[in-house]
Amino acid sequence: MSIESALASAIETIPDCVAAGYVDMETGMLLGIDAADRESSDALENLALSVANLFQSRGTKGFEELLRTAQIDETEHPGFGEIAVFANDRIHIFLRTPKYPDHVVCYICRDSANTGLALTKSHLSLSSVAAAV
User: Fold this and answer.
1) What does the pLDDT read at residue 57?
2) What pLDDT digit, counting tens, does each position of 2-50 carry?
3) Which residues, listed in sequence order, are joined to residue 29 by a DSSP beta bridge?
4) Distance between CA 121 and CA 133 in Å, rounded?
5) Quick one: pLDDT at residue 78?
6) How many CB atoms are closer than 10 A to CB 22?
7) Which residues, in sequence order, are CB contacts of 66 under 8 Å at separation 6+?
């Protein structure tokens, strides 16, 4: 299965999902994309460069270190695995793939989506999307 097919399948299962993309944080490249419309596709292309900064910025690293120091986060894999951003009329879900820690799957959903269900369904799709790489 191609990465585009895996992303298209994920979009069908995630409520109110309008776009999905697969980003390599090392290069900032969008390795795969599927979107319902041009606006969502453009949004993903613009987000691709920002994803690495979101996961690897000094502020994020400092927050992760604070959690480790307070012994709140004792995971063996450092770094956030997921980040959800609520902006305007969209929910942006960013999931780091366990198999490829420098890769992130991005989903854009309408704000009408049930957030918990969108997060759950996006997690369920993560392994099939990562397997398509």
Assistant:
1) 66
2) 999 999 999 999 999 999 999 998 888 899 999 988 888 888 888 887 8
3) 24
4) 19
5) 57
6) 26
7) none
Residue type at 23 in one-letter notation: V
82 neighbors 104 (Cβ within 8 angstroms) = no
Give the CA-trace dihedral at 55, 57, 62, 64, to 10 degrees: 10
Q: How far apart are CA 54 and CA 58, in angstroms?
A: 9
Residue-wise pLDDT for 87-123, tens only, equals: 889 999 999 888 888 899 999 999 999 999 999 999 9
Q: Enter the tokens of residue 105.
A: 């799957």
Rounded CA-CA distance 102/114 in Å is 28
The domain tally of the chain equals: 1
Structure tokens at 104: 């992130």
Taking 60 as the threshold, does the pLDDT of residue 74 lie above it?
Answer: no
**Which amino acid makes up residue 41?**
S
**Where residue 31 sits, what CATH number does that domain have?**
3.30.450.30
| Structural domain of 85 | 3-131
- Cβ neighbours of 51 (radius 10 Å): 24
SS3 103: strand
The residue written with tokens 């292309």 in the block is 45
